Amino acid sequence: MQIALLEPDPEQGARLADQLAECGHEVTRFKEGSRTLLRLRANGFKLLIARARAEGLDLDGVSLCKALREDWDESAMPVVLTLPAEAPEEAILEVLQAGANDCLLTPTSAAVLRGKIAAVRRALTAPPPRTRAFSLREESVALPASFAGYDLLEILGRGGFGAVFRARRVNDGRDVALKMLHPENNDDGLALARFFREVALLHSVEAPHLVKIVDTGFDQGRFFLATDYLPGRSGAELLEDGLSPVHDAARICAGIARGLAALHAAGVVHRDVKLANMIVDDEGQATLVDLGLAKERGDRSLTASSDIVGTAAYLSPEVVENREADAASDLYALGVCLYELVTGRKPHVAASVMGLLLKIATGEPPTPPRELRPELPAELEALILSLLEHDPSLRPRSAEEVARQLDRFSEAPSAS
């Protein structure tokens, strides 16, 4: 693919050019925006990658993108704008509002860059759909349908953000979970910022027990994110079958604790740990999914000052009191999950959401798990109650420590 690269920083430009060449693309580097615009109109480039904002440029990436979008003949030119990894959410929103197809946080890896270019290439060279085309004007999607080089096979879930589908990539048959934003969210700055933050976090943290990103892009008026499709059942679905054996519950939550440990080591708080966001395979191994509410510790840009973010039953006391969520808040939510799996009920129950939040905020102690299930080991009950401590400083010190403690209970008892 013939790519135009506008990057005024020599070191960053050389790195990106080398990575693009490594992926087999022909790259022409530019240092001036106006010259880039002229050459784009004359040389048939298939993609523009440009620095979103940079001092000293006569036309930076944002201005170039706006100019291309205003030109009817070139309005479809794919544009990826680059931003530094520490860029604020306002910068990401500016990129999207300028009409860019995607945002690339730099420095990046060749693998991430290859994925971005592959998504653009599929959009440019995709064969005629093998299945029914996806229509934005329909209230419901008749499946199978075709979208962004994927066959949509079944719907896995819906929400205010959009929908999640099990999909199969046309070019290699890989199954993915494809998360698609509602078109109305394209004008919702907070929704878009959370979406691109999820993409960035998935790229930056890879570890066992955490879902892996496959692809991201924009097609038919919708932003989308594809992650590995994980066959199995959610923790919530498992609970519908009845109480989990103690060793299964411990193994599931030990895996989730290790996924949280990787996030916390990277300075990220999940903020939505719950049974519905755990996928358990046939061997009892659990993976933590859905980083849609995750963010870096100390970053309050994705939360209004009056917002409480998360699912009510899993909120820690400090979050209910509108204090900032941290690693200890994730551990509290993990404690709720473990309590549910071994007792069949949540630690706090109320007739209304406000009543539930009041119980959590005031520190009403939950019924000790062994009163509900006497065969539970006393040490496991102590761990669960420590995770549910009202005071965050009294909870376990780390997710990795929790995982190690749970390992002691994760083996099935030997037959006597």
CATH architecture of the largest domain: Orthogonal Bundle
Q: What is the share of helical residues? A: 25-40%
* Structural class label: alpha/beta
- CATH fold category name of the largest domain: Transferase(Phosphotransferase), domain 1
CATH homologous superfamily annotation of the largest domain: Transferase(Phosphotransferase) domain 1
Number of domains: 3
In terms of DSSP E residues, the strand content is 15-25%
Number of helices: 14
Shape: elongated
- The pLDDT mean sits at 84
User: Which segments are poorly predicted (pLDDT under 50) over 5 or more consecutive residues?
Assistant: 126-139, 302-306
Query: What is the highest CATH level, the class of the largest domain?
Result: Mainly Alpha
As a whole number of angstroms, the C-alpha radius of gyration is: 24 Å
User: Can you summarize the main beta sheet?
Assistant: 7 strands, mixed
Q: How many strand segments?
A: 17
Spatial order of strands in the largest sheet: 6-7-8-9-10-12-11
Write out key terms for the chains shown.
416 residues; alpha/beta; Rossmann fold; Phosphorylase Kinase, domain 1; Transferase(Phosphotransferase), domain 1; 3 domains; 5-stranded parallel β-sheet; 14 helices
